[in-house]
Write a structure and sequence with these properties.
Layout lengths: L14 H4 L9 H22 L4 E7 L6 E2 L5 E11 L7 E8 L5 E3 L3 E3 L4 E10 L8 E10 L2 E10 L10
Antiparallel strand pairs: 1-3, 2-3, 3-7, 4-6, 4-8, 5-7, 8-9
């Protein structure tokens, strides 16, 4: 490289350092890239810590808005689909409860899922008629397993002849 008046072919330098200028160790680009990497790492950690190891969805059973039973109760039927995302071979029990639907009867089967298994189970919810019963009642289906929990919003529908509200 002496032919080209250079000390070596490969070196770590900058144009400013070659021209005799001051070398900066902290540059704005370095600080911005470091801040972005820190923010992305923090977001990944938050997402991993908040991860629920199962997925669930609740939908109304096709073709049924509500039914009136012989004893006067209003019945809504839903389909609960639960997927266990854990790769561990142990079975996981999931428990289902209702929030926001006071006095309702929940009829369902026990839900036990194997590793990476999906099940769809029916949820039958019965509610006694009353004067202050609204046509549409929002509530939450609470699903809990030993490793996490989910709250799924849905609505309970009633007949106008059963309650007093317009909801």
């Amino acid at each position: 490289m002496s032919r080209f008046d250079q000390p070596t072919l490969v070196r770590y330098s900058s144009i400013a350092a070659d021209e005799g200028g001051k070398r900066r160790t902290v540059r704005p680009r370095t600080v911005i890239y470091g801040g972005l990497m820190t923010a992305l790492t923090a977001a990944a950690i938050v997402l991993l810590l908040g991860r629920v190891p199962f997925e669930a969805s609740v939908n109304r059973a096709p073709g049924s808005l509500y039914q009136l039973d012989a004893d006067g109760f209003v019945r809504n039927t839903y389909l609960l689909k639960i997927t266990n995302n854990e790769p561990i071979d142990a079975d996981v029990d999931c428990f289902v409860r209702l929030h926001g639907l006071d006095g309702a009867q929940l009829l369902t089967q026990r839900v036990t899922l194997g590793s990476e298994e999906t099940k769809t189970v029916p949820l039958i919810i019965r509610l006694a008629p009353s004067e202050d019963l609204q046509r549409t009642i929002p509530f939450l289906v609470h699903i809990r397993s030993p490793s996490g929990e989910l709250l799924l919003p849905t609505t309970f529908k009633t007949a106008s002849s059963v309650g007093g509200g317009d909801g």
